[in-house]
């Protein structure tokens, strides 16, 4: 998720840069060299096309294949000017080997290969085009070098594609690890608060117009401070890890999510569940915590209890994360006031 956001931001910046550079070149080039009016028209067309790509990207939901599609559109848009300025001999042809590298940076290995292939086909078309219509190219280029330039260009594109794919694999694995670490609570291995909040927001957005119910549990260990005070923080950490394991055992891996909300407070979110089933799960969690002893260094045996506030709400009533958390929190504190080690259902 995080990496996708970075990739999208880079794509957007690249699209704006393409728009900016083509516009600037359209204005500045005629000031520096004498050129045919055709170049200016093509430049204006290119700038407008790049501007449209940028605006489209900015105001639509990003998709994984967008970078490849728009880069290929960009290359197609640039191909008339590349053709009239010498085809494979044109300065614009220097952009070709960079293209798969860029796609590798913002997309995946499959799209990098596809882009490499498209660019090779484009080089081939330009080579054939210049051979068939030499009079269309405005610049004087040594025709005898065209074939070797086309071959070198193709080889550079393929090399850049292969390196890009390799880079993508390493970067992808690294990125996944970073994302995973950013979403995980270091001590317990459960999801961290930020990750739970992102998950909840996604669930709320997805279920807005759907029928069904969502359940949220706030689980807080009772008198945990006394464990820290009596046996030390390391013993407290062992207890937190054990409780995390017990909570995880009671939720489904696929659709439910369990996390550490902070300190000795845990959170569980369960999608598409009715109130009674959610209550059963909460009771299971509570009893498993109560019945499982925690051993510290195989010497000290501790028993823990937890109070759970639970809120099961229909998708229509679900307005915001804060509202949901607040309802479960109030139930939790009611449970603490009633004497702890119990499950309390939120009043909606
Ligand atoms: N060992 C350990 N302790 C933590 C961690 N995070 C928070 N705590 C401790 O959790 C304790 C929470 O104490 P309180 O908020 O008073 O809650 P409590 O003692 O459980 O009391 P009640 O919730 O009212 O039953 C504090 O002593 C914190 O230092 C952690 O990561 N590891």
From TrEMBL:
InterPro entries: Diguanylate_Cyclase (IPR050469), GGDEF_dom (IPR000160), Nucleotide_cyclase (IPR029787), Rev_trsase/Diguanyl_cyclase (IPR043128). Its cofactor is Mg(2+). It comes from the Bacteria. This is diguanylate cyclase. It catalyses: 2 GTP = 3',3'-c-di-GMP + 2 diphosphate. Its EC number is 2.7.7.65. GO terms for cellular component: plasma membrane. The gene is pleD. Residues 212-348 form the GGDEF domain. PROSITE patterns: GGDEF (PS50887). Signal peptide: none annotated. The keyword Membrane applies. Keywords: Membrane, Transmembrane, Transmembrane helix. SUPFAM superfamilies: Nucleotide cyclase (SSF55073). GO terms for biological process: cell adhesion involved in single-species biofilm formation; negative regulation of bacterial-type flagellum-dependent cell motility. It comes from Paraglaciecola arctica BSs20135. The chain crosses the membrane at residues 12-32, 38-57, 64-86, 116-138, 150-171. The keyword Transferase does not apply. GO terms for molecular function: diguanylate cyclase activity.
